[in-house]
Write a structure and sequence with these properties.
Length: about 280
């Protein structure tokens, strides 16, 4: 049975997971087997549990101890559950909890790129993406619009950042992902070589007078295609664009030159992703 404790003192050390540890400290990059991430909202927590993530502790508003909170407590088993009124938890964490519930969970093992790309035909490659909201939105689009995996260059932010997980609506636990190396020097030369060894043709999403239209039939006909998207603001590095097999842009109207990277990813994934069974939206 879960141990339910009402919060009376913010400085209780067992609350550090939710109140005082930074994202980097939670991640424990030097010892990833000890890493923790925070899942926020019942839907996201449930998706993480279904994906096999191991819960460590729950933090929830008192009003959720019954109803949807009770079901999560049952699913999480014998772990601590810390509770308090909404304003108390906001004072502890520094923000209002989405749907009133957080769950600290152990980080799953991060596989190698070759492992997540086994059998894949369409993958997204994110270069130096740092905004967690964009990261979460791209994962959600990748899962919904036919990408088989997401690959991150070493300087990308963490997909298991609390905000990224929330914005993704838990799809970070549903679509396979991996990093193309751990050091910045691993990209682009080494990472591109790995993509080519896995049989992928690569397309850079970039503004260029020589760029192909996203609707060019040559792109859709590629058996294995990696869609490479760049960081917010600057876009892809010139060396990355030069190393790709294609440079591709989305046709624009009204003199607009480009889209936000998350919006651009959704358009590209819709055009080139593999169709998935399910109801149309």
């Amino acid at each position: 049975m879960a141990r339910i404790t009402e919060i009376t003192e913010f400085h209780q050390p067992e609350l550090d997971l939710f109140a005082r540890l930074t994202e980097n400290q939670l991640r424990s990059r030097l010892e990833p087997e000890k890493g923790i991430f925070i899942a926020e909202s019942p839907k996201v927590i449930r998706t993480a549990l279904e994906a096999g993530c191991q819960p460590v502790a729950l933090l929830m508003e008192k009003r959720h101890l019954e109803g949807q909170g009770a079901e999560l407590i049952r699913l999480c088993g014998e772990i601590p559950v810390y509770t308090g009124e909404r304003q108390v938890l906001a004072g502890l964490t520094g923000y209002a909890l989405t749907r009133g519930i957080l769950c600290a969970m152990r980080r799953p093992r991060t596989p190698e790129a070759e492992e997540v790309c086994r059998g894949a035909r369409r993958v997204a490659v994110l270069e130096n993406l740092v905004d967690s909201t964009n990261m979460g939105a791209i994962f959600r689009s990748a899962a919904a619009l036919g990408m088989d995996a997401v690959l991150l260059t070493p300087s990308c932010s963490d997909p298991l950042n609390r905000r990224a997980v929330r914005v993704s609506m838990g799809t970070v636990f549903q679509i396979p992902w991996a990093r193309l190396g751990e050091e910045p020097s691993s990209w682009p030369q080494e990472g591109m070589a790995r993509l080519k060894e896995m049989g992928f043709r690569t397309m850079a999403m970039a503004l260029s007078s020589q760029a192909l239209d996203l609707r060019d039939p040559r792109l859709a006909s590629e058996k294995k295609l990696a869609i490479v998207l760049g960081t917010e603001g600057d876009g892809l590095a010139r060396s990355t664009i030069a190393d790709c097999d294609y440079t591709v842009c989305i046709p624009m109207a009204h003199g607009v030159d480009s889209l936000n990277v998350a919006a651009a990813s959704a358009v590209a994934f819709w055009q080139l992703g593999q169709p998935k069974p399910g109801p149309a939206i």
